[in-house]
Specification:
Elements lengths: L1 E4 H6 L1 H11 L3 E5 L2 E6 L11 H18 L9 H16 L13
Parallel strand pairs: 1-2
Antiparallel strand pairs: 2-3
Length: 106
């Protein structure tokens, strides 16, 4: 593991972080010669669910949404209800409209 002083890290932050991201480099960050932190690539967390478990969890969530839906909205899909609530909340909070990249009409 390489060592780098805090002053050098501040001066070369973009370069060092690119090296960590692209090459998996790790650094011990020092202050006055004493190691104060470790800089290393983030651990990517893999899902421990199988496809079948994921699908079952999605089915349970859909059933919960359907059970909580008012009778007059039962013929509307859960996806449409969530989009409607999200858009309404964005409007109430004054957030700008950001189109869905996968569904430009939404």
């Amino acid at each position: 593991m390489k060592r780098i002083g805090i002053r050098e890290l501040k001066q070369r932050a973009s370069e060092i972080l690119r090296e960590v991201r692209d090459k998996g480099a790790s650094y011990e960050v020092t202050y006055r010669g004493e190691v104060i932190a470790n800089l290393a690539p983030a651990q990517r967390q893999e899902s421990s669910l199988t496809i079948e478990e994921w699908n079952a969890a999605c089915d349970r969530l859909a059933a919960q949404i359907d059970a909580a839906t008012l009778p007059e909205y039962r013929n509307v899909s859960s996806v449409d209800l969530i989009r409607y609530d999200r858009d309404r909340l964005d409007h109430v909070l004054g957030l700008p409209f950001v189109p869905d990249e996968k569904n430009p009409g939404n």
